[in-house]
Every structure is written in C-alpha cells, then in structure tokens.
Amino acid sequence: MNQSHKLVVLAAVLLTAMFLYGQETVEAIVAIVNDDVITLFEYKSEHESLYQFLRSQLQGEEFSKQYEAQKKELLERMITERLLLQEARKSNINVNEQLRMYIDNIKTQYNIGSDEELRRQMAQQGIDFEVWRRQQEKALLQQAVIFSEVGRNIVIDETDVVNYFDQHPDEFTDPTEYKLRAISISSEEKNDDEVRTKIQEIDEKLAAGEDMATLASQYSEGPEKESQGDLGTFKQGELAGPLQNAVENLEAGDMTSWIQMPNGWYRIKLEEKKESRLKPFEEVKSEIENKLYNQEQQKKIQEYVEELKKRSYIKILIPDPLKYR
After folding, report:
1. Pairing between strand 277-278 and 230-235?
2. What is the structure's pLDDT at 153?
3. Of 13, 43, 228, 240, which residue is least crowded by CB atoms under 10 Å?
4. pTM check: above 0.90
5. CA geometry: angle 170, 176, 177, nearest 5 deg
6. Which of 82, 149, 86, 88 is nearest to 300 (CA)?
C-alpha cells in the first residue's frame, strides 16, 4: 500500500473513532484491513459465538483443547474473511439468488410457509433473522470468491485417482462383520461352584441340541436376555480383545467355549459372517475425486490467502483483544 493510501485509511479510522465518540461510545480498533477495520466489539462478538458453539459440542479436555486452538486463530480468520469480502465487492459478486434459494430450502425442509414464520421461529430460539441472514450472505460471498479464484481452476487427473486407490486399499476395504448371539452368566454374588453348576447345565442342554436363543432367554443374565441372546452385528476390531480372538476364526454356526470377562462368563455363537472385501474402484471413484479435490483446494486457498495478504495493508493494533480493557 502506498503512502497516500495509508493516509486515507488513517483518516477513515480517525473519523470512525470520532463518530463513535460522538455517540458516547469509544470503540477500540483491533485491526486495520485495507479500508476496513475490525473493532473490539466485533472481535468479542465472534469470540462469544465461537465459545458458545464449542461449549455446545464438546466437553472437558477436548473442549479446552479446541477452544485454545481456535481462539489463537480467531483474529487471523477474521482478517481473512474481511479480505475475501473485499474481493467480492471489487468483483461485484452478487449472491442474492443463492441466498434466496438457501432460505427457501430451509423453509421447505422444516415445513415453514413464509419468511415471517421463519423470523418468528428463529426469534423464539433467540436468533435475530437479519443478523443470521447477513452471516449467510457473507459466507456465500466468501465461497464465491474462493470458487472464482481457486475452485474452478482445480482439475483432478484420473491417473491420480487410480494411484490413490492402489496406494490406500485399507481406506476402501469393508472389514469382516460378525452377527453374534450369546449366553452370559454373571460372576457377581455367586461362588465358583454356583457358576460351574450353571455353566454345566447350559452346556448339557446345548449338547442335546436345544436352541441357543431359547436357552439365552431362560439363562442369560445380561441385557441380551430380552432379545434371546442377540448381540447384533460387529465389525472387525469393535469387540473386546478376548471376544474378538474367540470369534474371528469361527465359521457361521460355530460356538466358542466359555470366555471369562471382568463381569462374568460368555458363550458366543457366530450366526453370520461377512468377509472383508475391497470395494470396486468404480464404487469409490467419486469419493476419491472429492477427497483429492478438497486436499488440492485447501492447499490453493492457503496460497491465495497468503498472496492476498501480501498485497494488502494489514495492521494489528491489539494483538490480544481479550486482555484489552
């Protein structure tokens, strides 16, 4: 940015400060981004939205970890968003039609008859419709700039798709699945003799050809009792270690011997087994294309934003806004 442009920006900043002072509110400026400013109020509003969103999605250590990471990046993200919106204005990008379609889709999805009804329902949830609408418009404008400058120039070569498929077979392999039925005997409030007696009684009836489902309803002491011993279907690796080891070499119809677990004893029948399979290339081709496209897009977006920052005037006045008083 040349010296005259810097003076224009400074003048705009001073006028903004004078106007806010005239309204009996002195608003601190966190950063200057070309001809725009990011105010302390805007930053704290964004921070509060971020905090509330993460709090609603995460808990404990995971919340703290994500919050600290995203808090550090918040100002840079706001600067990037401001730069993209400036580019949208320069290119006279209009997203009114896309915004209208987006709102109409929401009304259709939730069976809402009109904009006024949507406003009322949002107000009941504490959401200001106009604020929400402006946020969606900004998001669409940023997406339009990214697509115009980055997205439409990305081409994924079929050779790269084939190579990715060949080099990452584990990503496209369905694991072995086991459909299991069980009888469980709790070891709580029983001595060893009582457990052995009950196990022997069940084994004798199984050996005589009695149906395991019927016996599970009669003898099982776990939650599977209500479903005649049906445990459901498990993928390779989802079962606890001793159970996984016991069932993985069985054929459909086979039973394990009794397996001791921390809460008791289990005898399991493998009812069905679906072997692992590598999905055909054509089945996963579009998935790979999307993955490679997204990877390339993220790389190009980063390059584009860095270039945008290099040719812009950016001045951070308050590096740590949350500590500002």
Report:
1. unpaired
2. 87
3. 240
4. no
5. 135
6. 149
